Amino acid sequence: MDLKALKTFHRIVSLGGFNRAAEELNYAQSTVTMQIKKLEAELGILLIERGKLFQLTEAGRVFHQQSTHIVKDIEHLEATMSDMLVGEAGNIRMGAVEPIASCQLPGILDRFLSKYPKIRISVDIANTAALSERLLKGELDLALCSRQDIGTALYFEPLFSEDLVFLVPERHPLASNPTLSFEDIKHHRMLLTSKNCLYRKKIEIALQERCENQVETMEISSMAAMKHYVEGGLGIALVPKSIASPQLSGTVARKINGTRISITFGMLCKAADYPLKLACAKLYQYLKQELAGPGDTLDDDSSRS
Amino acid sequence: MDLKALKTFHRIVSLGGFNRAAEELNYAQSTVTMQIKKLEAELGILLIERGKLFQLTEAGRVFHQQSTHIVKDIEHLEATMSDMLVGEAGNIRMGAVEPIASCQLPGILDRFLSKYPKIRISVDIANTAALSERLLKGELDLALCSRQDIGTALYFEPLFSEDLVFLVPERHPLASNPTLSFEDIKHHRMLLTSKNCLYRKKIEIALQERCENQVETMEISSMAAMKHYVEGGLGIALVPKSIASPQLSGTVARKINGTRISITFGMLCKAADYPLKLACAKLYQYLKQELAGPGDTLDDDSSRS
DNA sequence: TCGGTAATTCAATATTATTGAACAACGGAG
DNA sequence: CTCCGTTGTTCAATAATATTGAATTACCGA
Asked: pTM of the full predicted structure?
């Protein structure tokens, strides 16, 4: 079946004649005849009642009805592709590590999608290593995670860094200190995330160096659950500022006295894909703008209370 | 946009490569390349990631998703047209006069549509003159009505005839007669349908000839309502047997003694359309078979009680 | 670096779409 | 009923384009 003939058929129906359709479509009259003839031959059935007043056959009516949807869908598809061309439409597969995926991303994506209603986004939440792998396999377009050095196949661009803060139960003896150092928490219980967590390694190094391992630890796999353990008084956690605030009642955040521990997050994508195109580029610009600034320091209001 | 290229694209995706698609579609490899190239050029955007392992671009994924519906719809349309070719599918616009439309037709059409689930039927209910007009204008495909002699433009084929019977109120003085003649109803009140009704003319002629107009008449526009007027004792009606039975309680049917009055119904269509094609032919055959026989006589059980 | 597979390029060829001119069918006006 | 204007068809010529094989290039994995 030929799309050109299909469109001609629809023009004939809406204009009520071969001649008018030919004129409007800039065809010779004979061209229109030929196209319809071919269409009818393919289908093996007459579509248009010839002679006399213009009229469709039964088959023609059914054909017109059904093909209308098809023509509309094709036009919609063409419009979509045209939107994609300028980045207004698209289907982005992004990845993100916790806590970005749960804390910052929902708000940002909500605003982004409101601005670009024809763009769809799927978010894969995993650690940096897993995301890198999926990027290389072409299963993701871009990811928000920490730096991953896999030669030249991936491109990383830092966007912001996040400090860690102590999250302390409200009634904990250390809660009264305005800041806490690692020395302070010797002989107290620390709550740690699971081994594959980004922060875990940095925290362990700090504990080893500064507390000489004189700290009891307990492992909680989820960062979100962690807050409730702190609230319950089970121990002190070291968490990203964005997790600590807004605070759960019953917990207080305290910045680290002495060494500052922070982790840098950024955009990771296949080197071949950079600079990003189309909708991904739009999302990237948006992320850059939304993520720049916050989380760099503890010297703002939200961390004080 | 070209459908051939669209199908090639889908084959490439499902088979995972230009080569395999070319082989399966009996194309040279270069043909496939050309088709995709042209498609991409038209859309202005790359669909397939070249080199390395086979992969779609973001645009390619969106395009594939959306065009899948289109390809399916086209296949469905082709299947429908193929069904139409053998009369298994279709869209029939039929007309019918009362009381056929209300009495016989519902049952017949229900059975017919169960047998041919892909056929759709619309029923236009009007008198013979109006139906003829719509047939000529091409707004109907066939009609069940009485003969209409409009030269050679229309074709009529008798299918069955229906006798008229007297419908008498149960407590009416004439209700005790097993049969009634026109002479019997002199000086009683007759209920007549409106002027454009099929039966009206025949009844008026009979009344004039046999009762010398010594009958009081009253006009009721609807045949269905008529039964209730009879039930209420307002007078005697002369109605088709199929209207009289099943009877409304409070009324009794009596056959005509002497002259038999009957009207012949049949299939009317444009002369140019006869013999009917496709789904219309199927329906016509079915109607013929279902309508043949019943309604010819009063000598069956249903008319006696 | 070197095969081997996979896709592209290009010029030649086959196919098919398009066209104008002459012709046929139809409907309405005289 | 005939004529005329409109509308669609036929057909052979022509324009456009789809397809192809052979040579070439790109790329993956060893």
From this structure: 0.81
Q: Is A60 exposed, middle or buried (0-12, 13-18, 19+ CB in 10 A)?
A: buried
Q: For A58, which of B59, B67, B91 is closest by C-beta distance? A: B91
* CB A125, CB A100: distance < 8 Å: no
How close A108 gets to chain B, by Cα (Å)? 22
Q: What share of chain A is helix, strand, coil (3-state, %, to 5)?
A: 45, 25, 30
| C-alpha B138, offset from chain centre | 15
Q: What is the mean pLDDT of chain B?
A: 88
Q: Which of B47, B61, B70, B273 to mutate to test the interface with A (most CBs of A within 10 A)?
A: B70
**Separation in Å, CA of B168 to nearest CA in chain A:** 46
Q: What does the buried/exposed string (b/e) look like for A162-176 if buried means 16 or more CB atoms within 10 Å of the residue's CB?
A: bbbbbbbbeebeeee
Q: Which of A85, A105, A127 is where one domain is finished?
A: A85
Tell me if A62 and B90 make a contact (CB, 8 A cut-off): yes
pLDDT (0 to 100) of residue A293 = 63
Q: How far is CA A171 from CA A228, A232, A249, in A?
A: 14, 10, 11
pLDDT of residue B299: 40
SS3 call for A20: helix
Residue B38, domain CATH: 1.10.10.10
Q: What's the confidence (pLDDT) of residue B297?
A: 40
The gap between the terminal CA atoms of chain B, to the nearest Å, is 71
Query: Which pLDDT does position A247 carry in this prediction?
Result: 67
A270 CA – D23 C1', rounded, Å: 34
Å separating the CA of residue B42 from the C1' of nucleotide C12: 25
* Same structural domain, B72 and B15: yes
* Closest Cβ opposite residue B85 in set A45, A69, A90: A45
How far, in Å, CA of A138 to CA of B268, rounded?
66
Footprint of strand D on the protein (CB under 7 A): A 17-19, 29-30, 33-34, 36-37, 50-51, 54; B 2, 4, 26-31, 34-35, 38, 50-53
Question: Helix, strand, or coil here: B145?
Answer: strand
Which residues neighbour A232 within 8 Å (Cβ) at sequence distance 6 or greater?
A169
Cβ–Cβ of A84/B58 closer than 8 Å? yes
Q: How far apart are the first and last CA of chain A?
A: 71
Nucleic acid strand C within 7 Å of A41 CB = no
pLDDT of residue A298: 36
Nucleotide nearest to A26 (CA to C1'): C18
Nearest to B90 among A58, A70, A82 (CB): A58
Regarding whether B49 and B97 lie in a shared domain, the answer is: no
How far is it, in rounded angstroms, from Cα A226 to Cα B124? 72
Check A62 against B91: CB less than 8 A apart.
Answer: yes
Same domain, B24 and B106: no
Identify the CA nearest to A272 among candidates B12, B57, B16. B57
**Gap from A80 CA to chain B (nearest CA, Å):** 8
Domain extent, residue B37, equals 3-85
- CA separation, residue A81 to residues A87, B12, B35, B72, B150 (Å): 10, 19, 17, 19, 57
B255 and B277 together in one domain:
no
